[in-house]
Amino acid sequence: MSNQKPSLPKGTRDFAPSVVNKRNYIIQTIRKIFEKFGFQPLETPTMENLSVLTGKYGDEGDQLIFKVLNSGDYLSKIKTDLSEINSSQLTTQIAEKGLRYDLTVPFARFVVMNRNEITFPFRRYQIQPVWRADRPQKGRYREFMQCDADVVGTDSLLCEAEILMMLNEILTNLGIEGYEIVVNSRKILTGMATYLGHPGEESALCVAIDKLDKIGAEGVFKELKQTGYKELELNKLNPILNLSGSNKGRLATLKKLFGNNNETQAGIKEIETMFSFAENMQGNLNTVTFDPTLARGLSYYTGVIFEVKMRDGSIGSISGGGRYDNLTGVFGMPDVSGVGISLGIDRVFDVMETRNLFPKEIATTTKVLITNFGESEEVYAQQQLSNLRNEGIAVELYPDAAKLKKQMSYANNLNIPYVILIGSEEIANNKLTLKNMSTGEQNTLTLNEVIQKLV
C-alpha cells in the first residue's frame, strides 16, 4: 500500500493548541457575559432532518446544505431508474439528514418541539460549529463556529437595549477598540419604499441599499433604476443617504422628512425607545450609530437590526442580528416574536490577532515546568508535582532526565512562565528553586512560598 499524503477537506482547518487557547478565551469571555445577562446555554445536534432545514434559507441556501447519506446500502432502496432522475431528486431518496447550516433554524425547531416545557420569554445562547457547502475563499470556510444569543416570546425593546449593552461589554472585555454598533429598523426601510413611491417593494430597496458601502450611492441608484425606480423618486433618497450629526439629530431630521408615514415613524419610535432604555441602564451609546441605510440581507427581520463593524474597515461585520416576528411560524407555531445576535468568532479572532490583543498567559495551559535531573531527584519531583496539582496549579514534570538546556528550551517554546529546578541541594533542604522565565529571576523557596507565588 503506497503512503498516502494526508490532506484536509477544502474549507476546513486544524486549530493548533495555541489557537484553540485563544479561541477558548474569546468563547469564555462571551459565554460569561451572555450568562450575566440571563441567557441559558442550548446545544442542538450536528445533524438535522432535511425536512427541517430545506426551504428556510432560500434556493441558494438549500444548495449549500451538506447532505448526509442514509446508512447501509442506500442505493438498493431507490425505486427509480437512476438515468431518469437528476441529482436533487436522487438526494431525497438517499439522504434524509443534513449538517446544521446555522443555529437559528435548529433553535426555532427546539422552541416548537419543547413549547410546553419552556418558560417564556426564553433567553438562550448557543456556541457551536455550522457547515455550508460554499466555495472556500479567504475568510470564508465550510466549517465555522457561530455564537448566537436570542430572546423569544416578548416584543419588549428592553431586549434590544440589552443587546447593545452586551455587545459593548463583550468587545470592551476583549480589549477591542474602534468598533461601531450600527442600528436601524426594518420598519424604516419598509416605510422608505412607500415614501419613494414603491409601497410593498422594500426587498429590492434593501438588496440595493445593503451594498452602499461597496458600490456607493451611484451604484445603488443604478441598481434601483433597473428595478423600476425613477430619477425623481431616487432624488428623494439623497437627504437620507447624506444624513450626518448625532443619533438624536438624525432621528429628528428623518421624523420631519417622512412626515405622517406611519411605518417609518414606528421604526423611528423603536430606535428612540431602545436608546432611552439603554440610557436608563447607564449603557454606553457612544459606540452606537443610527444609520437608516443599514439593511442586512436576511428577509425575516421585521424590527430593529444590528451590525457591528470596525471603523477602519479592516474586516467585514463581526456581529449582526435583529428582531423577527415569526421565527417559529414555518413549524406551525406562528406569532412568536424574538430578537437575537450572532458573533463571528473567526472575525473577532482576526481582529484580536492582528492587533495583538490576546493576553500572553493564555498561550499555554501549563504554568510551571519541573525539571528532571535523574532518578534520585525524580521521586522528590513527583511528590512536588502532586502537591502543586492539589493546589489547582497547572504543572508538568519533564518526563526524561535530558540536558537542562533542552528542558529550558521546551519551557520557552511553550511559553511556560515558570520553571522549578530540583537538585540534591533542594532535596536536602526540602526546598524548591523557582525561576521566572520572563525576568530570569530565581529564588529558593519552601513549597508553601512557591504556591503563594503561583496561585
Describe the structure in brief.
This protein is α+β, with helices and mostly antiparallel strands and 455 residues long.
Describe the structure.
The protein has helices at 17-36, 50-53, 58-63, 87-94, 104-113, 158-173, 186-195, 202-209, 212-226, 231-235, 238-241, 247-258, 262-280, 345-354, 375-390, 404-413, 424-429, 447-454, and strands spanning 40-41, 47-49, 67-69, 95-99, 122-131, 143-152, 179-185, 288-290, 301-310, 319-324, 338-344, 368-370, 395-397, 418-421, 432-436, 442-445. The chain is of the alpha+beta class and 455 residues long. It is globular. The relative contact order is 0.11. The mean pLDDT is 92.
Keywords:
alpha+beta, 19% strand, 455 residues, 8-stranded mixed beta sheet, 18 helices, BirA Bifunctional Protein, domain 2, 2 domains, globular, 5-stranded mixed beta sheet, Rossmann fold, 41% helix
Low-confidence runs: none
Number of helices: 18
Shape: globular
What does the radius of gyration come to? 28 Å
How are the secondary structure elements laid out?
Elements: H1 17-36, E1 40-41, E2 47-49, H2 50-53, H3 58-63, E3 67-69, H4 87-94, E4 95-99, H5 104-113, E5 122-131, E6 143-152, H6 158-173, E7 179-185, H7 186-195, H8 202-209, H9 212-226, H10 231-235, H11 238-241, H12 247-258, H13 262-280, E8 288-290, E9 301-310, E10 319-324, E11 338-344, H14 345-354, E12 368-370, H15 375-390, E13 395-397, H16 404-413, E14 418-421, H17 424-429, E15 432-436, E16 442-445, H18 447-454
Parallel strand pairs: 1-5, 7-8, 12-13, 12-14
Antiparallel strand pairs: 2-4, 3-4, 5-6, 6-11, 7-9, 9-10, 10-11, 14-15, 15-16
Helix pairs in contact: 1-6, 1-14, 6-13, 7-8, 7-13, 8-9, 12-13
